[in-house]
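Most newcomers find our protein records easier to grasp once they have seen one. There is nothing in a record beyond a sequence line and a structure line. Getting from the letters to the tokens is the skill we practise here. An example says more than a description, so a record of this kind follows:
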Amino acid sequence: MFLIAPTLNIVIGAFQTPDGSFTLANIQGLFTRSIMSSYWISIKISVASAAIGSLVGFLMATAVVLGGLPRGLRAPLMTFSGVASNFAGVPLAFAFLATLGPLGLVTGVLRTEFGINLRAYGFNILSFWGLTITYLFFQIPLMILIITPALDGLKREWREAASCLGATGAQYWRMVALPILFPTIIGTFALLFANAFGAVATAIALTGSSLNIAPIMLFAQIRGDVLGDPQLGYAMAFGMIVITAVANVTYIVLRIRSERWLK
């Protein structure tokens, strides 16, 4: 009721005029330059945060599960990941503004103690890379949570068999482990992409209107400003549903495929 009914309302509204008659004008409105640009920026941010989050999260999980680190590190890491993967919205935006903003703690320490001016190097928290770095706070933990069971599923016998046949550690990872983990990694990347693409509260709280991404434009259309167009907002939401649905279906299909090897 709380998931399907609102989704159907959005889909139906995307093909209706304000008086309720059928129209394709709302869908055609998605192909204007400003809306296409907002979708493209959102896709680039989602791809960047998903790629970096997948890589860093995979390396961290591998270090804890297979890298010989103390076992006591695993429980705190998984606990933190469970909390951080759900930490978003206004609190997360405020935390990064207070840390890496123009008057943030880290920004001030780097400037006064080390003579490093982040602004002079072109870094701005209210920018593409600023929002991407902020998204990494919940993207990396989500990757850790999903990839850890897959790493646990790598059987010790596979590594021993590879070693007995003369394979080095690099060859084992290249020819055995990574091919088995590849569907999970790509599927998780798709999930992280959808997770970032649909994030709205953090983006609005952090960048306001300074970054033209799809969720912010959607918010502007729905909230009913002078230039707002709720029906176009429904169409934008419908476009986001299609993109995130493709990403989530990709994740589910690849996850099912990877589980065949890990069982």
Notes: The CA atoms of residues 97 and 205 lie 10 Å apart. The mean pLDDT is 87.
